[in-house]
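COMPLEX REQUEST
Ligand: NAP
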Amino acid sequence: MKRFAIKGFGAAREVFEEIEANPRVVDASHVRIAIKTFAVNPYDVAFRQGKMSQSIEFPYVLGKDGAGIVTEVGIGVPELKVGDEVIFHALTGSYGEEIVVPGNKVVLKPAEMSFAEAAGLVTPGLTAYNLVTHLLGEAAGEVVAVQGASGAVGSLVVQLLKANGKTVIGTASKRNEELVRNLGVDHFAAYDQVDPGKVFADQADTVIDATKGSRTSESGMKLLKAGGTYIALNDLPTKRTKAGNYVHFGPSRSYQDQEAFEALTALYKAGKLKLTIAEILPFELTSVITAHEKIEGHPNAGKLIIQKEQ
Ligand SMILES: NC(=O)c1ccc[n+]([C@@H]2O[C@H](COP(=O)([O-])OP(=O)(O)OC[C@H]3O[C@@H](n4cnc5c(N)ncnc54)[C@H](OP(=O)(O)O)[C@@H]3O)[C@@H](O)[C@H]2O)c1
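STATUS: Structure written out below.
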């Protein structure tokens, strides 16, 4: 079984290698999936660069997000069968031909969703859903500003907030204005042309910084109403210029993937969730390296997906 692994932390073209791995045994609670697509996330890039300070053994196979076809099912997973087209959320190891994952981390892929969209939905979708539904809920207030509204997470946060009837201010670069407006934002500001914090000063009950590496805290705090809620997916601002409730969002064991997947796929089937794919690359080591290098720069909006042709 072919997998794409890192042999250490460092530059993508120096550490990625193709390895041949032995298939794992499937126990009662797990399923085996032949992977059709996997997504590359900013998290994978930071991990490969050695920024996540994890203690691991090499070679190590990255990747949490993917979609494929079930090839073996543990006896304790009666809801799935061989041949099902599924979406999965793994702890790690989706950069390859096959994966064995717990049954509760797998959901049926809607027939109308492509395998590329399915892989691209996973981490951004779970993040957006848990943030909007569990962290915020009704505490979001009426007006929410989403910075990084063109991003994988930000674009889904915008759509979930609109589905909940919120007024949404979106910020992104000028080149992504049309994409963000098409997601349904009520107001837009291009951060590379104006300061959104000045344009929409003191208007947001909640500000969500979904930019890569939390780059917009100064303008975000200007957007915030005094006493509002400020959420960052990465670092919170160290120098706080406005009184408010400052919260870091991160994964939690109390969030159930099945619940989020069901809500997200239902919205997709109802035509209320658009998933943006930037590029689909072939199932090759060079594609993995290319995807990592693109994410290190300032890539076009949308997910980078690696797809295996059968
Ligand atoms: N805490 C968690 O649980 C969690 C989960 C998922 C992701 N994350 C993190 O959240 C961040 C976003 O992830 P993603 O997958 O959505 O990434 P993405 O698709 O690459 O989106 C990045 C966003 O950042 C914006 N951006 C890039 N450079 C910027 C700058 N200099 N100023 C302002 N905005 C800028 C982009 O806007 P333009 O392209 O329009 O410029 C885009 O909207 C990443 O840092 C990721 O690691 C955290």
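REMARKS: The chain has a mean pLDDT of 96. The pocket of NAP is lined by residues 41-43, 123-124, 127, 148, 150-154, 172-173, 176, 191, 210-213, 215-216, 233-234, 249-251, 298, 301 (CB under 6 Å).
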